[in-house]
Structure formats: C-alpha cells, structure tokens
Amino acid sequence: MDNPELTPGPDAEEPANLKFLRRLVTVLTATMIGGVLLIIGLIVIRFYDVPPPLPETLQLPDGATALSFTQGTDWYAVVTTDDMILIYDRVTGALTQTVKITR
C-alpha cells in the first residue's frame, strides 16, 4: 500500500521554503517573547517610581479660594478665584512661586 519510493527517509533534506519558514517562526517567537518581557519591565519601572504623597491640608494665603488644582512630579499648583497661581514644593509643602494671571 505505501510506496517506499515516496516515503522520506531519515537522510531526506528539507525543502528550502520549509527551512526558511521554520527559521522565520523561530525568530518571530523570540521577538515576541523579548517584546513581552520588555513591556512587563517598562510597566514595573513606570509604576515603581511613585511621587511623594500630597499633604493632608493646604494653607492658602488669606482670602484666597481654590478654583483648580494641578500637579507635576515635584510640585503642585492651585489656581485661585482672584487670578493667582500658587506653586508649592511637593516634598516640603512650602509655597515656592506665585504667578499673577493678567487678562
């Protein structure tokens, strides 16, 4: 039933297209594994760097009412209703700069 002439033997050479495809799949697999490891590493690094927490309370100058709030890595700012931007140091909580908004 089986034709011995059509059955490949142990010394049979793979076709060139099959060798190329096998190498391509191996390179793609290695690239995907490397990419997943890189993404996991970047996520861990990104979330490991946590900025200092904000203070529980904030002392605004007399008569100032907060309108909005924003923050950076080492500072935070409060915009007041009297068109002032108060910039505070994140670590010490000290007022470092006051900017008057002119219209």
Describe this structure in words.
There is one protein chain. The protein is 32% helix and 23% strand. It has one helix at residues 16-48, and strands spanning 66-71, 75-80, 84-89, 95-100. The mean pLDDT is 87. It has a 4-stranded antiparallel beta sheet with strand order 1-2-3-4, with no helix packed on it. With 103 residues, the protein is α+β, with helices and mostly antiparallel strands.
Short summary:
A 4-stranded antiparallel beta sheet has the order 1-2-3-4, with no helix packed on it. It is 32% helix and 23% strand. The protein is of the alpha+beta class.
Key words describing this protein structure:
103 residues, alpha+beta, four-stranded antiparallel sheet, 1 helix, 4 strands, 32% helix
Mean pLDDT: 87
Strand order of the largest sheet: 1-2-3-4
The fraction of residues in strands falls at 15-25%
- Rg from alpha-carbon coordinates: 32 Å
Give the helix proportion (percent range): 25-40%
**Low-confidence blocks of residues:** none
What distance lies between the first and last C-alpha atoms, to the nearest angstrom? 95 Å
Q: What would you call the structural class?
A: alpha+beta
Q: Secondary-structure element sequence?
A: HEEEE
Question: What is the number of E strands?
Answer: 4
Main β sheet profile: 4 strands, antiparallel
Report the total helices.
1
